[in-house]
Every structure is written in C-alpha cells, then in structure tokens.
Amino acid sequence: MKYSKAMVASQLFEEPVDPLVASQKSIFVVGMICCEKELQSSVEHSGGQRVRLDLQKLDRFSLFPSQVAGIEGHNPSGHYLIATKFGIVEVVTTSQKVNLRDELENICKACK
Questions:
Q1: For the chain, which residues make up each domain, given as ranges?
Q2: pTM surpassing 0.90?
Q3: CATH class for the region spanning 3-111
Q4: Has UniProt tagged this entry with the keyword Nucleus (predicted)?
C-alpha cells in the first residue's frame, strides 16, 4: 500500500495534493524528506518535484533524508510549504498485527 493511501485510509488526513501549487488554505502532502529541509513529492502528485519546507511553526520534529512524511500546511507563494502538522509514515508489514488507524492517531498525537 502506498504511504499516502495508508494515511488517507486512517481517516485522519485528506487526499494529498501537489505541494507546489500556491494555496492559502491548509493542504495535506506526502513525500520524502531530502537534504536542506526539502520535501520531494510523489510522481503521481507533482512529477517528483521538490518544495522547500518552512518548519518554524512546528514545536518539535525530527527529520532525516529519505524519511517519508505526511505534512499539513499551506503554500502561499508556491515556493515553500509552511508546515503546521508533521506526521511520520511507518512501514507496517502484514506479519505485524497493528491497527493502522490507531498507529497513525498515536503518531499524529505525538506531533501536536
């Protein structure tokens, strides 16, 4: 299952959108963290383009390159995404008996 579909299936997030499109309203994006606070979105949503992240509104977070994350925020100019919520996507194998919705809720609570 794709990471974005797993997060949407949890019913905690909206369908992800292209993070490069200017928007004053809050949007949800899923992508891979690249160096220097950039998010590379999926080919499906933005052709694999990168957007700079402004993380100043987050109280606490931990990022590393190649980490897959779900980010809620807005992009007023189309040049950078101002993050207001940050969630980490963890890979769940079929051998693990984990309720994905509960896990995502716990992750999101920890990020608030």
A1: 3-111
A2: no
A3: mainly beta
A4: yes
